[in-house]
Automatic annotation (TrEMBL):
Residues 65-290 form the OBG-type G domain. GO terms for molecular function: GDP binding; GTP binding; GTPase activity. One of its GO terms (cellular component) is cytoplasmic stress granule. This is OBG-type G domain-containing protein. GO terms for biological process: cytoplasmic translation.
Amino acid sequence: MSTVMQKIKDIEDEMARTQKNKATAHHLGLLKAKLAKLRREILAPPSSKGGGAGEGFDVTKSGDSRVGLVGFPSVGKSTLLNKLTGTFSEVASYEFTTLTCVPGVIKYRGSKIQLLDLPGIIEGAKDGKGRGRQVISTARTCNCILIVLDAIKPITHKRLIEKELEGFGIRLNKEPPNMGFRRKDKGGINFTSTVANTHLDLETVKAICGEYKIHNADISLRFDATADDLIDVIEGNRIYMPCIYVVNKIDQITVEELEVLDRLPHYCPISAHLEWNLDGLLDKIWEYLNLIRVYTKPKGNSPDYEDPVILSANKCTVEDFCERIHKDMVKQFKFALVWGSSAKHKPQRVGKEHTLEDEDVVQIIKKV
C-alpha cells in the first residue's frame, strides 16, 4: 500500500511541476490516467475474502431518498441531524465526536428522507486516511450530499472536501460527459468530434487509452471534453450527484461576510444551533432531490392526501408509479385515470407510459 501511496505522491508532484499548455497536454493526460488507476487500486484493493476495504458503513437504505452530511470535524453536522430529524447524535466541543454513521429520518411534504450523519473526514481521506474510505463509500450511496461548512473557518475547506470527493469518483453538481465510448475487437482508435477541441487530440486520446490497454475503440465527442472527462468515461464508475453547500454558524459572522458567502453557487446559509433557515434548507433539499408527490385515489373514495407515493422526476410514468406500489400491479394494469397538471382534462384516461407531475391524483383500473 505504501508503494502505491508513494507512486500517487510522485505523480501529483510531477503534475504540480508541469506547466499547463498545449505542449504538455499529452503528458498531463497520461499522468492523470495513471493517477486514476492508482486511486482505483487504493480505494478498492483486491481482497481474497468477501468484504472489500472500500466498503462503507453498514446502514440499511430506507425511505424515499438518502442524503449524506459530509464535512470536517466539529462543523455542526450532528446538531443539524438532531434538529432536522429528532435523532440523537452526540454533540461536543471536541473533534471526532461522531465515530460511526448515525441515520435519521426527515418527514417532509409526505416523504421520508433518510439523513446520514457521517464522521468528519480529514485531508487525505481519498487516499484512505482516517475513516475516509468508509465515509466516502457511504456518501456514494446517497442521492444528494450536504457539504457542511463552518462559516468562521475559511472557504478553503470547501475546496479540500471537493478534492477528497472528486478523488473518490464523486462528481458534484455535474452531468455525465456527453461522450460516446465503445470498445471493439479491431480497427484501432477511431476518434471523432462534432465540436472544436481545445483539450484533446488523437495522440492524447491514444496515450490515455493505451494506459488502460485499450487499443481498439470508437470515441465520439459532442462537447469540448478534457482528459479528465475521457478518464471518467473509461473508468465507468463515477457517481454524479447534486450537492448543497450548507454554511453553518452564520450567527457568528457579520452581514458583510454573509454577503460574500452569498456568491457561492448551490449555497444555503443556516445556524443549526439557533434553528435559522432550516425550512429554507429543507426546501432546497427537496428541490435538489428532484422528487414529486403522486396521490392515490381508490375507486369510490376521496384521494389520500396524507400518504403520497414519492417518485423521482426522472422516473415518473404511470408504470413507475405502479411498480412503486407493488411489482405485480403492472401485470394487472388496464388503464389509469389522472387528475392534475399532467392531465389535459379531468380526469384523463391514460396508459402506463403517461408522465405524471407533482401532486397529480391517480386511480388505477385493473383487468378483470
